[in-house]
Amino acid sequence: MTDDALFVSMVCSSTRLPAVIRFRWDGESYVATAGSKQRPGSVVPPQHGNGSINGSFSLGAAYPGCVYCGADNFVRCGRCRELGCHDHSWEVFNCPRCGNSGRVDGTIDSLSGLGSS
């Protein structure tokens, strides 16, 4: 992907409201560049068939954080594999989708439920 943006569904860990994170390929990784609120019940369409993208995912310098609570990062739940917002100051991640909780570690190497532009 060169100029395409990838959109990934996320849920705010504080408000449990849906959002979308926009990623851009920078030649080495998919970099989060923006976020936007999502209408409850709407779905991000799959990216080119299976909806799974492998690679490295990181924050861009301009990423503003969660559009609802301002959390400065995102995590993928170890149980349900979905994204939730996370602030570096929080000791544990509490998944807003499935209720799983625990310390954050590791890196994200694939995401599902992607759409593209």
Strand-residue proportion: 35-45%
Question: Gyration radius, to the nearest Å?
Answer: 13 Å
Number of helices: 0
Low-pLDDT runs: none
Order of helices and strands: EEEEEEEEEEE
Structural class: mainly beta
Integer average pLDDT: 86
Question: Into which percent range does the helicity of residues fall?
Answer: under 10%
Total strands: the figure is 11
Report the span from N to C terminus: 11 Å
Shape, per Cα inertia axes? globular
**Mind summarizing the main beta sheet?**
7 strands, mixed
Topology of this protein?
Elements: E1 5-11, E2 18-25, E3 30-37, E4 52-54, E5 57-59, E6 73-76, E7 83-86, E8 93-94, E9 101-102, E10 110-112, E11 114-116
Parallel strand pairs: 1-7, 3-5
Antiparallel strand pairs: 1-2, 1-11, 2-3, 4-10, 6-7, 8-9
In short:
With 117 residues, the protein is mainly β. It is 0% helix and 40% strand.
Written overview of the protein:
The structure is a single chain. The chain is mainly beta. It is built from no helices and 11 strands. The strands form 3 sheets. Strands 1, 2, 3, 5, 6, 7 and 11 form a 7-stranded mixed beta sheet that branches. Strands 4-10 form a two-stranded antiparallel ribbon. The protein starts with a strand and ends with a strand.
